[in-house]
Model the fold of this input.
Amino acid sequence: MSQKIRKVVFPVGGLGTRFLPATKSMPKEMLPVVDKPLIHYAFEEAQAAGIEQFIFVTGRNKHPINDHFDHAFELQNVLSGRNKQDELHRTSDWLPPAGSVSFVRQQEPLGLGHAVWCARHIIGNEPFAVILADDMVLADKPCLQQMVEAYATVPGSNILGVMDIPPQDTGSYGIIDIENKDNAGSQLVKAKGLVEKPAPDKAPSTLSIIGRYILQPEVFDILGSQKPGAGGEIQLTDSINQMTAKHSTYGYRFDGVRYDCGGLVGFVAANVAYALARPEIKGRMVEELEKVYERSGVAQKK
Ligand code: G1P
Done:
């Protein structure tokens, strides 16, 4: 079996209710951070990691995602007629080769585990990546690329992107049960189990899973009969947990800053951080932010 990570799954079937009314007629994954949709960053991260096949697990009202990953001939004709080369470049030059984008429908929103399982026929029998677009990682080296490199040191394992979180936040994330507490602080941490969204007093650690996974295809066998877990949903965490006895599972503490764009504060913070990371607008952004701070009275209170 080839060990190269060639395929990525983007579960994009969620309703995005935290962002209503913005998500009433637009998928949450199309919300822009500065000038690119969330899903576009996820796509670029996968591309940077050498991924060749991009699999979107979609649901109702997600057509704008399909259109985003296609040509927009009318727009391209107009831009071309006006010789708008930069705009043309941003519209379509980044499209992956024909045949490398697939869409599969998750007919019912039964949970993240179920969404990933829906991609099983397209993945087949090889290790693959999963990216949750609402977890953004601002990093010098893209997060999935870091994980692919880490995977080369422990081939055949599952690797999950992880970060340390405050103890009171464990109920919002999958949490790793660390095998060897002596190595708890290292970048690659072996897991003896995983728990989805445990209450702080039940959490085995404060090392939380973020939306980056490299998984072995055996996860599909388990997902196929996975019973609903936390929140009544079929949880990916529960199936990976069941695999850990047979397949080593590691948490990988990535280098970079993660923005949880599944919530309003993280999303707005990501917009600020990604704008400040753009040299052409950084100076003006700083000026504007200082003014916003002053006007809001926050600066004085400090
Ligand atoms: C999902 C996973 C969870 C993980 C989180 C990262 O939860 O189930 O284990 O920690 O993504 O963002 P969700 O945010 O979909 O509730």
Observations:
- Residues 112, 132, 135, 173-174, 196, 208-211, 235-237, 262 surround 1-O-phosphono-alpha-D-glucopyranose (CB under 6 Å).
- The chain has a mean pLDDT of 95.
